[in-house]
Amino acid sequence: MTRVSAQLRVADLLDAARAKIGLTEFGDEWFREPLGVLVASLNAEAQLSELGLELTRRRLIALLVDRLRLRALQREHPEVAEVEVNVAAEICGLPRTGSTLLHRLLAASPQLTSTLSWETGYPLPFPGEGPDAAERKRRAREKARMFLELSPDFADIHTLEWDGAEEDVILVDRSFTSMSFDSFYWVPSYGDWLRATDQAPAYRELREWLQVLRWQDPSRAGRRWVLKSPHHLTAVDTVLDTFPTCKIVMTHRSPVRAVPSYASMVATMCAQYSEVLDREAIGRYWNARFAATLRDFAAVRERRPDRFVDVRFGEMLTDPAGQARRVLGELGLAPGPEDDAAFAAYLERNREEHRGSHSYTAEDFALTDGQLERDFAFYTEVYL
Predict the structure, then answer these.
(1) How many whole angstroms separate alpha carbon 379 and alpha carbon 293?
(2) Neighbouring C-beta atoms of residue 341, cutoff 10 Å
(3) Rounded-to-integer distance, Cα 291 and Cα 349, Å
(4) What CA–CA distance (Å, rounded) separates 33 from 36?
(5) pLDDT of 125-164, one tens digit each?
(6) What is the pLDDT of residues 4-21, one digit of tens each?
(7) Whose CA is closest to 92, among 244, 242, 306, 307?
(8) Are 157 and 265 contacting, i.e. CB atoms less than 8 angstroms apart?
(9) Which of 1, 45, 69, 231 has the smallest count of CB within 10 Å of its CB?
(10) Contact criterion met (CB below 8 Å) for 173 and 62
(11) CA distance 255 to 95
(12) What are the residue ranges of helices labelled H in 197-319?
């Protein structure tokens, strides 16, 4: 792969999306601002390879196509706007803190539901598609296979389950207001903009996507949503305001381990799109980013303490089912035998999955344990 001088252009992306699907109405075009900031940062900072540029162009067009298709579905089926969305929890710990394990355990509960990997990738039914969504599921399997071909080490870091519970931030990607982008690309100016902007429009749209998923799947009736992404730590107040029934479930682990672990994951993902990988810059960026994020979390926590539940990483490792039961109780749901059976089944499947070792050190990213301890002392002294 080689770096190319070609540029992405917002107007070209919009035109390509319209031409691809034969639709023209994006609805409220507030999303043009975040898309413009992202494209400018990609062009100026990401140093995309030829393959990376093409993959990114296709990705952005696909997200725009989904926006067009969402508006068309809402016009054709106005009843979707009346679908109730009841979010029980957003799991919001830093990456690499046991949040994925907790999310997938809770999602297994018959009392809860979650966004699934295949439907976050393909949330809208294809024309003529039956209720089994077979074509979307096939594409999701193929997409996961191709992703791991481009980034074979990723499975050692994060287990991909094409049909399992997955982060709802992938739905938020369609607003172009998402931590996904500065995780997959070196776009620090976009990341700075994201932390400073009002994300309320993106969360209104997340609610709309959840309505669409619930409308398609009547079996979700009566079940509350359990969602998860570290992205939501960039907008904790907005999450709580958008979903009044939601609690933030915060998974806690020493940032001395979590920050370099996520930096390693980011480096793996960025290598798909660029041959230029500055590990020192990645380390500095995510160290500062997570320190600011945790300070913001602590400020909201102080103002709205009744909306938070704490889970510590060590307890997730020693008693994952017990922690899942405790969190259910904190969400106002009484855990019963069916929940216990579901937790046990997931843990057994999780043990059987093959994983390699995820090798990294703080020094790989020009960080040190001592520096990380100092930078995050304000957090660890309170929560760990």
Answers:
(1) 11
(2) 12
(3) 35
(4) 5
(5) 998 898 899 999 999 999 888 877 876 766 555 567 888 9
(6) 567 999 999 999 999 999
(7) 307
(8) yes
(9) 1
(10) no
(11) 10
(12) 200-216, 236-242, 255-270, 279-303, 313-318
Tell me the per-residue pLDDT of 273-312, one tens digit each, with 9 for 90 and over: 999 999 999 999 999 999 999 999 999 999 999 999 999 9
Residues 6+ apart with CB under 8 A from 186: 45, 46, 47, 270, 274, 276, 278, 281, 282
Could you read off the pLDDT of 240-268 as tens digits, one per residue?
A: 999 999 999 999 999 998 999 999 999 99
Mean pLDDT, range 185-196, rounded to an integer: 97
Euclidean distance between CA atoms 177 and 379, whole angstroms: 26
Cα 143 vs. chain centroid, distance in angstroms? 17
Strand partners, 113: 225
* Distance of alpha carbon 31 from alpha carbon 49, whole angstroms: 26
C-beta neighbour count of 190 within 10 angstroms: 24
Strand partners, 224: 112
Side-chain half-sphere exposure of 141, counting CA atoms within 13 A: 5
How far apart are alpha carbons 67 and 124 in whole angstroms?
10
Backbone angles phi and psi of 311, in degrees to 5: -140, 125
**Distance in angstroms (rounded) separating the CA atoms of residues 106 and 89:** 10
- Predicted local confidence at residue 301, as pLDDT: 96
pTM of the full structure: 0.94
| Exposed / middle / buried, residue 55 (Cβ in 10 Å: 0-12, 13-18, 19+) | middle
Q: What type of residue sits at position 165?
A: A
Sign, CA dihedral 101-102-107-113, equals negative
Residue 351, pLDDT score:
86
CB of 58 closer than 8 Å to CB of 24: no
Tell me phi and psi for residue 68, to 5 degrees.
-60, -45
H or E element: which one contains 170? Answer: helix 169-172
Neighbours of 332 (CB within 10 A): 10
Estimate the share of the chain in helix, then strand, then coil, as percent rounded to the nearest 5: 65, 5, 30
* CA-closest candidate to residue 334, choices 111, 82, 31, 164: 111
